[in-house]
Amino acid sequence: MRTVTAHGRWIWGLSGLATAAVLAVPGARLLTHPGADGQHMTPTNTATRTVSLVQPITSLDVQSQDGSVRVQAGTGRGVQIIELISYDKSVSPQPRVEDSVSGGRLTLADPVCSASDCAVSFVVTVPATVPVTVSSNGAPVAISGVAGANVESGGAPVNLARLTGLLTVDTDGGSLDLNGLTGPLHADTGGGPMTATGINGPATISTEGGSLAVTGLTGPLQADSAGGPVVLRNLGSQTAGISTGGGSGQVTFAAAPELVTLSTDGGPATLDVPSGSYALNTDSDGGPQSVRVSADPSASRSLTVTSGGGALELDPTRR
Predict the structure, then answer these.
(1) Strands (E), 127-191
(2) Which terminus has fewer CB within 10 Å in the chain: N or C?
(3) How far apart are CA 154 and CA 147, in angstroms?
(4) Residue 176 in contact with residue 195, Cβ under 8 Å?
(5) What's the farthest any 2 CA atoms get from each other in the chain?
């Protein structure tokens, strides 16, 4: 995994420092900027370039070697690309950046920076109907307001907000912050912490040891923290399978679920559900156990909680 470098983070502040060149790009024309000679450089010079597209865009693919990526929804059909470039001032001309459109798909890339010590960050505004694919190779990613996303950050933090449609994200150890998503979610942080609020759709989540904190999820949930602590609040899910792999598990439902499985493998397990009758299966494996929920083996709603020796609590949701 590539180490996140300083220029991959601070380059966000460059916007507005250089004069922008605004171009209309017809058809599937490939736009290129002058390229470097490929030698190893320490980025010290900066440049900003703005490109405006007039043709319709149906999807976006950003491939950044070492620069931050921000994608946001605009108010109309237009597309604006801001490229923030850093490179050694002794090198002329500046590193190449590629912008191409084919079949409605806009692709942005900085391939020269895979071999040279340069960085290109992208700030892209697209219509809200556009789905987005981003690979940042170790630099932060922020996406808001678009129709779904597929993200790989290579260890850097990812922030996603107000997305509709399928979301697939792999941070490879970076933190993940989600807010206001509608659609299926597949998230793997590779050890990084994850926080989420307002998730309306089915979710499959793996943190591989990272902490997991979710508030307000409504769809079916499958979550595995592999040792990290889990705090899930105000869930509206009808079904949920939660495994902490030794971490603590605190789960609270705002609406009565149909089927819940919570396993902590030694960590303390706390499950709060609305009052009512449930078919219960609880096993603390010798640990302290407290159950205050009404048990009815014939109930249609089912709760299974196992703590593997950790403290186990099953209580009515506190109002």
Answers:
(1) 132-135, 141-144, 149-152, 158-164, 167-170, 176-182, 185-188
(2) C
(3) 22
(4) yes
(5) 77
3-state secondary structure of 59: strand
* E strand map for 26-96: 31-32, 45-53, 59-63, 69-73, 79-87
Separation CA 52–CA 47 (nearest Å) = 17
Q: Is this structure's pTM higher than 0.70? A: yes
Give the Cα separation of 212 and 192 in Å (integer): 9
Residues 6+ away with beta carbon under 8 Å from 319: none
Query: What's the confidence (pLDDT) of residue 39?
Result: 45
Reading the block at residue 84, the tokens are: 């923030």
pLDDT tens per residue, range 198-214: 999 999 999 999 999 99
153 Cβ contact list (under 8 Å, min separation 6): 134, 136, 138, 139, 140, 141, 169, 170, 171, 172, 174
